[in-house]
Amino acid sequence: MPQIVGQPITGVLATDFAHYTPEAVPQELIDGGVKLAIIKVDKNFIKSATRCAEKGLEIAGYHWCDITESNNAQRDRTLQRCEGLPVRGIMCDVEQYWSSWEEWYAVYVYKTMAWNLMKQASAQIISNQARDMFSLFSKEIYTFGYSSMNFIKEHCEPYSDSWINNYDWFMAHYRNQPTAGTRLTWQEVKDNWMPNYEPFYPTALQRKKLVGHQFTGDHIAVKGLYQEYFGKDDPRNKYALADINVVDEDWYNRLVEKEIPSPENPPIVIPPPEEGEIMNLAGIVKQNVNLRAGHATSYAMVLSASIQAGASITASEYGTYGGEEWLHITSINGAPVDGWSVSTWNGTKVIEYWEVVTTPPTDPPAPSGKAELISFDATLEDPVTKEQWTQSWQKGI
Q1: What are phi and psi of 139, to 5 degrees?
Q2: DSSP assignment, residue 289?
Q3: What is the pLDDT, as a whole number, of residue 268?
Q4: Residue 2: per-residue pLDDT
Q5: For the segment 273-314, what is each residue's pLDDT rounded down to a tens digit?
Q6: Is residue 171 within 8 Å of 198, Cβ to Cβ?
Q7: Domain ranges in the chain?
Q8: Which of 88, 53, 92, 96 is nearest to 75 (CA)?
Q9: What is the rounded radius of gyration, in angstroms, for the C-alpha atoms of the chain?
C-alpha cells in the first residue's frame, strides 16, 4: 500500500471546465462520481453551466485574475454571465505573472520571443490585484482561491501573507500522474490516481483554509469533458484533458448548502441620522496619504499630489479592505472631493477621525467666502479639541 504523506485531502471529486472544454456532458461526469463542476466564466460558461444545472450537477465559476484589466470590469463581466444560474461561488484563479498579453502570445503561441524577455509584474502588484479582486467578488458571492505553493511563493509573497487566510483555497500539486493524454475511466482514476499526499501550500496559509487539491493537470482524458462531442461513445468525440480535484467533503456540503459566510468586512455606512440632523465623519490627516479612486493601492490616484499632514477632511463611510481601514473622503480643507484614502497603514493610524452630527439652520445663511477650518496644536485625543473642531466645522469659520 502506498505510503501516505502528510494529511491528504479526502472527500468528493470536482473538475474544471477550461476554455478548451467547450463541450461537456454532465451526466457522464455525474455517473463518474463528480459532484462539483468549476466552470471558467468565459463565452462557454452560460451553455456549460445551464447543462450542468439541468442535470443537477453543482456548479461554481472560476475567474482568471488578469492584472492587465480593471478589476471592476472583470467583476462586472463575470457576475453578469453568472446571473440567473445556481452558481455556488467564484474561484479566483491566481496564476498570471506577465504584464502584457501581447508578449505572452509572442512567447507561448507565436514563439517569436524568448520567455526571459517577457515583462513580469512585481509580487506586490500581483498580490494587490488578487487581493482586490477577491474583495470585490466576496461582497457579491462566496469567493475562494486557486493557485499553487510555488506561484504564491515566487510571485505574491510576502505581500499575500496579510490577506491569504481571508479565503479558502484549492492548491495545485501534481506528484503522481499518468503520461499526458492517457485515456482513463473515472473508476480507474479513483482506483489508481487519487492522491495519497497532502498538497504543498504556502507557509502563511493556515491548514484549515486548504479545502481542495488539484491533483491532475491536463494529463488525463475522461468521459464527460470534450473539445468536440458527437454523441455517446461516438468515435469522433474529441476529448479534452482534465484538471481533476479532490475536495474536502465538509467544505463541499457547506458550499452547496450556502452556509459559508463571506470573510470580507463591507463598507460600514453611517446610519441615517434623526430627522433634521446631518451625520458625517470629520478628521485630521496625521501623515501624508494619497486619495485614490477605490479602496486599494492598485486604484489610480485621484489627485496629483498627496493629502498633506495637518489637512482637515470629511468622509461618508469607512471599511476594512486587505487588512487596512479606508475612508471615503468627501472634502479636504473644505474643498469637495470624491475618493478613498487609508486611515490606517501597517497598523499605524494615519488619519484620526470621529463622527460629527450637525443640525442645519432653518434659513440657509447668505453665501460667504471659502470656509477655512481652524487649526490647533492640542492632541487629537483631547475631547475639548474635538469639540472645538466640530464647532468650527458647523459654523463654517
Answers
A1: -80, -15
A2: B
A3: 45
A4: 55
A5: 455 555 578 889 988 888 988 887 767 788 877 899 889 999
A6: no
A7: 11-256, 268-395
A8: 92
A9: 26
**Domain 268-395 of CATH type 2.30.30:** yes
Residue with cell string 480535484:
245
Q: Which three cell numbers stand for residue 390?
A: 466640530
Bridge partner residues of 212 (DSSP): 170, 247
Q: What sign has the CA pseudo-torsion 197, 201, 203, 206?
A: negative
Cβ contact 44:18 at 8 Å: no
Name the nearest CA neighbour of 37 among 64, 18, 9, 11.
18
Give backbone dihedrals phi and psi of 252, rounded to 5 degrees, phi first. Answer: -60, -45
Query: What does the block give as the cell for 284?
Result: 485630521
Q: Quick one: which of 237, 190, 252, 234 has its CA closest to 216?
A: 190
Give the integer Cα–Cα distance in Å for 368 and 54. Answer: 66
d(CA 41, CA 52): 14
Select from 365, 321, 369, 316 the least CA-distant residue to 342. Answer: 321
What pLDDT sits at residue 390?
46
Cβ atoms of 306 and 289 within 8 Å: the answer is yes
Ranges in the chain, pLDDT < 70: 1-4, 258-279, 298, 321-323, 347, 357-397
3-state secondary structure 308-332: CCCCEEEEEEEEEECCEEEEEEEEE
Whole-number pLDDT of residue 360: 56
Give the three-state DSSP class for 355. Answer: strand
Name the DSSP letter for residue 100.
-
Burial class of 207 by CB neighbour count within 10 A (0 to 12, 13 to 18, 19+): exposed
Q: How is residue 235 annotated by DSSP?
A: T
Domain 11-256 CATH superfamily: Glycosidases (3.20.20.80)
Specify the pLDDT at position 292.
Answer: 87
Instruction: Write the CB contacts of 340 (distance below 8 Å, at least 6 apart in sequence).
Output: 291, 292, 293, 294, 295, 299, 326, 327, 328, 329
Tell me if 252 sits within 8 A of 35, measured CB to CB.
yes
